[in-house]
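INFO batch 0412 | record 1 of 1 | parsing
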Amino acid sequence: MVKKAPAGSGEAVFSQKKQSVDQVQLKHLSLRNYRNYENLSLPFYPGFNVIHGRNAQGKTNLLEAIYLVCGLRPFSGAKNSDLVRFGCEASLVKGEILSGNGLNEVHITVKKEGRHTRLNSKTVRSISQHFGRFKVVLFLPSDIEIVKGGLQARRNYLDSVISAVYPAHIKQLRDYQRAVSQRNHMLGSREKMSSLSMELWDEQIAGIGADIVSRRVEMIKSFNRKLAEVYGEHGESDTSARVSYGFSFERKADLGEGIREALSRNFPSDRKRGHTTVGPHRDRVGFLLNGQDASRFASQGQSKNLVLALKASEIRLFKEHTGTNPILLLDDITSELDKKRRSFLFQTLSEFTGQVFVTSTDKNEIPRRGELHSFLVDSGRVKAGA
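INFO prediction complete | emitting tokens
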């Protein structure tokens, strides 16, 4: 459960919900003219759903469609035009999702110029209002960039986890980015600047920014508790893994005041540069392994292990804060792991009681946990039970 704090207060905004756990389950998916799928209708099941087949047949496309219908947006970086089958004007994605409030129908029409989404026959005008309604944890081979990539990738990752727990975070990020853009426009303008206008944008940046930072700090506390649990349970208690947060401004009890003072102090240099140099968009999210910066010093294997631990922690965080078991989506993740890290992953999966979708070139490499449902993908066609 999320507690709403006053704007700019810096108060904690998360709390535990309940001991019982709700399950989210995708029961049915229909596709028409989606990427390389012309027409597809599939039932899915609780437990393990293994999507297998040769490379470049459409396994990842199918996983993306599942992510789209649950998260109401495609994989990061995907354009609407990418989602429409070649030569077609639009694609259609429909899903039936069982959650704590019953059966939900999601209907998404994708055109090059935009997407139209309906949830239970009602138009969704703001994705941020519904993001996180159907919780999903996504594992992609590219997720190593969370550790090895730039600061923006790490900020985006942390904000995405927060948004799944607290969807209003998305709107506040957008409002903040809009305020920073307006301030930057004024800083870069050669026209005479109104001090009153600048103060108004500074006030918005400070107020919204304080709320964003307070949620990040609170989520990091939760992340660090879960990381310690995960590493300890997987026999790596000698490894200390932590998420760190570096402020671009002087931290004060009133976060808004700290941002406001930094904006005022940095105004001359910001004016010269033409952009805003302090605030949540410049704060540093990092990962530490035994006290060292993982982006610089962690090996490839250590980085993969850290990503697995982060994702395992996400699952636990969702259960703790929302009382919901998310749907897990794993894209060809086993091919990127050595024997030890496969064991780490499979142990995590064996403990998970929710619905899992995993893609692989070999369904036999996926260990069984109860009944396993397989789907063979071949050139945009899917055969269930194969």
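INFO post-check: The domain at 22-384 is CATH 1.20.1050.90 (Glutathione S-transferase Yfyf (Class Pi); Chain A, domain 2).
INFO record closed
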